[in-house]
């Protein structure tokens, strides 16, 4: 598979910035997502934090998933709409994180997971019949079932503060990818109406009852 130059550039920036952060703690701390610093005016962290990662496994996983799902969007919609989806999901994930953890001044996070989650959701909407293999399950999972399950798991994880995982960023990114895909490619309502509804139900519930997650 030929990798698009724009996608390659995004992956390279993630790799270079992350490797720099692995060995330079001052660099890492200066650009990571941190509630207190962002509240003091360091808004650039809303962007830069998405190009840093905790370790090589975190980096490789995010970039591999991006490499798998992004071409579906680029092939169908083109590079410009892919960039809208990627960066829109990135900011949506960090915005929800900022909102949900606004009183936790020392809360910090890094990673492209919000942007990647948005790309996954947009790809599922474009191709709801896709089959995803999830270890350790021996059978493929339809994309729309994975999408609904992922949203519900993220909501549950936010509510119960499960593990050292940025569930809010994943959830916000997924919502961003979902909403932006409907905006830039409204034909999806015709092609994948059932999937649009199924993935939309958890989002509507979150918007209605999100204040009860805390």
TrEMBL record:
Task: Give the superkingdom in one word.
Answer: Bacteria
Please give the Pfam families that the UniProt record associates with this protein.
Answer: Rhomboid (PF01694)
List its EC numbers.
3.4.21.-
Subcellular locations according to the entry: Membrane
User: Quick check: keyword Glycoprotein in the entry?
Assistant: no
One annotated GO molecular function is: peptidase activity
Residue ranges occupied by any Peptidase S54 rhomboid domain in the UniProt entry: 41-185
First-tier enzyme category under EC: hydrolase
Asked if the record carries the keyword Membrane, the reply is yes
Q: Give the GO biological process terms.
A: proteolysis
Per the UniProt record, which residue ranges are transmembrane?
6-23, 73-93, 105-126, 132-153, 165-185, 191-209
Bilayer topology annotation: Multi-pass membrane protein
* Keywords for the protein's UniProt record, in alphabetical order: Hydrolase, Membrane, Protease, Transmembrane, Transmembrane helix
Query: Its family?
Result: Belongs to the peptidase S54 family.
Name assigned to this protein: Rhomboid family intramembrane serine protease
What taxonomic classification does the UniProt entry list for its organism?
Answer: Bacteria, Pseudomonadati, Bacteroidota, Flavobacteriia, Flavobacteriales
